[in-house]
Design brief:
This protein is mainly alpha-helical and 169 residues long. Helix content is 74%, strand content 0%.
């Protein structure tokens, strides 16, 4: 990403401009995945069918709310570093690295499988971003991603706890 394009305003922030320009594309990538994951969780929430409907419906609502906060924190970090947070749907769809949500999936097991795959991919992306931002020297952004990674791991655990009860082990 071109540095001029990445930076949208000057700031007294004491992080080097080149460091900030290097971190901004990583933040934007995580924002796209976070927004996609939030949309996928809402798809699951709206369309789920099965015997644990109400428990999962409520769980997915709580997870979506947590993900919305993570998206907001990520977008605000982009802007704090002098960038432009791009959460437009076409940008999210173009840039996400998450698996696509299966069309018309409603059965409880299939919804849980799809959601677990996306949450897992999101967690992997966050851990990669922790490593990258640490190498670049932005401890603040690495810390942001570390907190989100812990939350994502918990979300995966909650989803897989329901999924494991559906499979013969």
């Amino acid at each position: 990403m071109n540095r001029r394009r990445a930076m949208t305003y000057a700031s007294r922030l004491d992080l080097d401009t080149a460091l900030r320009a290097a971190v901004l594309p990583i933040l934007q990538s995580r924002l796209s995945d976070t927004l996609d994951l939030q949309a996928q969780v809402k798809q699951a929430h709206w369309n789920l069918r099965g015997p644990a409907f109400i428990a999962l419906h409520d769980l997915f609502d709580r997870i979506a709310a947590d993900i919305a906060l993570a998206a907001d924190d990520t977008a605000e970090r982009i802007v704090a570093l002098g960038g432009y947070a791009d959460g437009r749907p076409f940008r999210t769809a173009r840039d996400t690295s998450l698996p696509g949500w299966p069309e018309r999936v409603q059965a409880q097991g299939a919804v849980l499988d799809a959601l677990a795959a996306s949450i897992s991919a999101h967690g992997r992306g966050l851990r990669d971003a922790i490593d990258s931002t640490t190498q670049i020297g932005d401890a603040g952004t690495a810390d942001l991603f570390t907190g989100q990674s812990r939350q994502t791991d918990k979300q995966l655990w909650l989803v897989e706890a329901h999924l494991s009860g559906m499979k013969a082990e």
